[in-house]
Design brief:
- This protein has a domain at about 145-195.
- The chain is about 75% helix and about 0% strand.
- The protein is built from eleven helices and no strands.
- Helix 3 runs antiparallel to helix 4 (about 60-75) and helix 9 runs parallel beside helix 11.
- It is elongated and about 70 Å long.
- The relative contact order is 0.06.
Length: about 200
């Protein structure tokens, strides 16, 4: 059986649009088939690699996603998303040292990548490096001030560091825009905070 013909720019464009159409209508399997066709014809197509990795990751198969992201990273190390995708998958798989390294690499390329700061914070929490985690989470809150996720994790870290006053400050702040998250933290920490 002969190899499929190389992918021309036009064919690549048309196949990507076909895959996007499938994704738009929730037809993930068909979209993945198109991305596999792209890879068969152009094995170094970073977009197809990332798309197949993302599909594997979001369907609960991070170990299957990792090789796609690893190859995409090798092909496009200058892209912050390449580092982020690999780091995020490593974090899920418990490969924390690699995750930390790649989140930091993503941040070095794109300092304002808020999700990389958040991911780094979560990895540092799992490594019990709480002071460093707070730095990363605070950076995330500067970049995404209305997102409750980093604020929530910051309150938890303050409690782990036995800093209830700082945790109260975070909860008080959350009450201003995410009262349900603030109430959850009050239940979890046992702290009662008034505005």
């Amino acid at each position: 059986m002969s190899a499929p013909p190389a992918l021309s720019k036009l064919d690549g464009f048309l196949l990507r649009w076909r895959a996007k159409g499938f994704l738009f209508f929730g037809m993930r399997t068909q979209a993945a088939d198109v991305f596999r066709e792209i890879l068969a014809r152009s094995p170094e197509d970073v977009h197809a690699l990332n798309s197949l990795g993302y599909d594997a990751l979001t369907t609960g198969h991070p170990a299957q996603a990792l090789p796609y992201f690893e190859k995409a990273l090798a092909l496009a190390p200058e892209k912050s998303n390449s580092h982020f995708n690999f780091a995020y998958t490593c974090e899920i798989l418990g490969r924390l040292e690699e995750a930390e390294q790649e989140f930091r690499a993503a941040i070095a390329i794109e300092e304002k990548m808020d999700r990389a700061w958040y991911g780094l914070g979560l990895v540092l929490i799992r490594q019990k490096r709480f002071d460093e985690a707070l730095v990363a989470l605070k950076r995330n809150t500067v970049l995404q001030p209305m997102s409750p996720f980093a604020w929530y994790q910051m309150a938890r870290v303050h409690m782990l560091l036995e800093q209830p006053d700082e945790a109260r400050h975070v909860i008080r702040h959350l009450k201003g825009f995410e009262p349900k998250v603030a109430a959850q933290l009050e239940r979890e920490t046992g702290l009662q905070v008034s505005i």
